[in-house]
Specification:
By secondary structure, the chain is an all-alpha fold. The protein has 8 helices and no strands. The model has no long low-confidence stretch (mean pLDDT 85).
Length: 159
């Protein structure tokens, strides 16, 4: 099933909206880059090889079991943050790049997340974690369904 929608190209604000979407995309990309690679919390991490997690869900479960050391709010923020930060990607892939199929959107989300984890590993910044990839792709899937709901509501809205 495709996510294609039919924008009103004759609407007076179409071109303005196109520029706003492009601006929002670059703002999103910049924010994503900052959060993943340069945020203050990243600077306090000391690289150790044992931080790399290649076993799905293992690190997340261990973190929640050790919440007394790390703090439950840090675990929840990490979990939700990894999901939420990728939700907008589906909107941008459809509206800016014209990518409408769910499979392609999910694949691009996966490749972006995998690339981030690979960069973290190669340059020893952050913590490469398979759980981050799973959570990021979950965010992309949620974004796809929110996009579908958004356009369904918009199409059924009386004009």
């Amino acid at each position: 099933m495709s996510l294609r929608h039919f924008p009103l190209k004759n609407a007076p604000f179409y071109y303005l909206m196109k520029h706003i979407r492009t601006f929002l995309f670059f703002s999103y990309a910049g924010l994503l880059t900052y959060i993943v690679f340069f945020a203050r919390r990243r600077q306090s991490l000391v690289w150790r090889d044992n931080l790399v997690n290649l076993v799905p869900i293992k690190h997340t479960i261990q973190s929640f079991r050790r919440s007394d050391l790390i703090g439950l709010e840090n675990n929840v923020a990490n979990l939700l943050g990894n999901v939420v930060i990728f939700v907008p990607l589906a909107f941008f892939l459809v509206n800016i790049f014209g990518i409408y199929t769910k499979r392609k959107i999910i694949l691009i989300g996966f490749l972006m997340s995998f690339s981030i984890e690979l960069i973290q590993f190669v340059f020893r910044i952050g913590v490469p974690d398979i759980d981050d990839i799973i959570l990021n792709v979950t965010g992309v899937v949620i974004g796809i369904y929110l996009y579908k709901i958004f356009w369904a509501v918009l199409r059924n809205k009386p004009r």
